[in-house]
């Protein structure tokens, strides 16, 4: 038996996010779903796994059901498969942010960079005047990244603003393209750069996962594996499991 794995997020106004935690957890438990979901007043984020029927029921409730009242009808979704259940338990958290940067002016609900479809990503990042930045943590970058991408050397996403202040200049870096696993970190990263005066800011729509899913390996500029925070450890082209080929990093 294999499992459906859904990586999801959406920035949306959820002022009642704290009250939504208990019913969302109860729904997941009733469906036998495991994984992690994070709620905040700025939206939802997470990766969960379950049977095909269970995941379909959860996504249907999130996007069309009464629980969220249609506020998450633009949910960013990526699906993959797992040969065994990739999560040990279910976690549903309420936090200040659905992806923690700690910078109030980085608000994707107000402004984000230009989305670039996976099919158009290669053409953008091979332009000589484009600075390509991997917004993930160093241990993720070490496992795999795009050719020519800059590793900011961060251990947490909260360090990214410091990297920008110390290494990037709107007058010098005219075009900046960023990417991350599923797209959510780049929503905040591009929003932050825009708030700092950068004008041409791009990010890979759907993240590395969508790129690996849709771009043929023979045309790919991705090198290595894409780390995922579950028992599969990493995914490759076509979102195939790579856990037998890679060693799990020491993630705190």
Automatic annotation (TrEMBL):
InterPro entries: Rhodanese-like_dom, Rhodanese-like_dom_sf, TrhO, TRHO_N. GO terms for biological process: tRNA modification. Its EC number is 1.14.-.-. Coiled coil: none annotated. It comes from the Bacteria. Residues 126-220 form the Rhodanese domain. It catalyses: uridine(34) in tRNA + AH2 + O2 = 5-hydroxyuridine(34) in tRNA + A + H2O. GO terms for molecular function: oxidoreductase activity, acting on paired donors, with incorporation or reduction of molecular oxygen. The keyword DNA damage does not apply. The keyword tRNA processing applies. PROSITE patterns: RHODANESE_3. Gene3D superfamilies: 3.30.70.100, Rhodanese-like domain (3.40.250.10). Keywords: Oxidoreductase, tRNA processing. Pfam families: Rhodanese, UPF0176_N. SMART domains: RHOD (SM00450). Belongs to the TrhO family. Catalyzes oxygen-dependent 5-hydroxyuridine (ho5U) modification at position 34 in tRNAs. NCBIfam families: PRK00142.1-4. This is tRNA uridine(34) hydroxylase. It comes from Agaricicola taiwanensis. The lineage of its organism: Bacteria, Pseudomonadati, Pseudomonadota, Alphaproteobacteria, Rhodobacterales.
């Amino acid at each position: 038996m294999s499992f459906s794995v859904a990586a999801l997020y959406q920035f949306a106004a959820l002022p009642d996010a704290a009250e939504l935690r208990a019913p969302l957890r109860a729904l997941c438990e009733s469906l036998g779903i495991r994984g992690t979901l994070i709620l905040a007043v700025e939206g939802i984020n997470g990766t969960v796994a379950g049977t095909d029927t269970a995941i379909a029921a959860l996504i249907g409730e999130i996007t069309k059901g009464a629980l969220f009242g249609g506020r998450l009808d633009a949910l960013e979704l990526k699906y993959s498969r797992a040969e065994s259940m990739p999560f040990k338990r279910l976690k549903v958290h309420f936090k200040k942010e659905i992806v923690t940067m700690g910078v109030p002016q980085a608000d994707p609900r107000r402004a984000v960079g230009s989305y670039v479809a996976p099919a158009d990503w290669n053409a953008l990042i091979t332009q000589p005047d484009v600075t390509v930045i991997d917004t993930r943590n160093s241990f993720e970058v070490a496992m795999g990244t795009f050719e020519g991408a800059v590793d900011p050397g961060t251990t947490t996403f909260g360090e990214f603003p410091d990297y920008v202040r110390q290494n990037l200049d709107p007058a010098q870096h005219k075009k900046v393209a960023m990417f991350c696993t599923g797209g959510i970190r780049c929503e905040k990263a591009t929003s932050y750069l825009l708030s700092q005066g950068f004008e041409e800011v791009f990010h890979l729509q759907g993240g590395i996962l969508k790129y690996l899913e849709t771009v043929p390996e023979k045309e790919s500029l991705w090198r290595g594996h894409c780390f995922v925070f579950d028992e599969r450890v990493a995914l490759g082209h076509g979102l195939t499991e790579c856990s037998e080929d890679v060693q799990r990093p020491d993630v705190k």
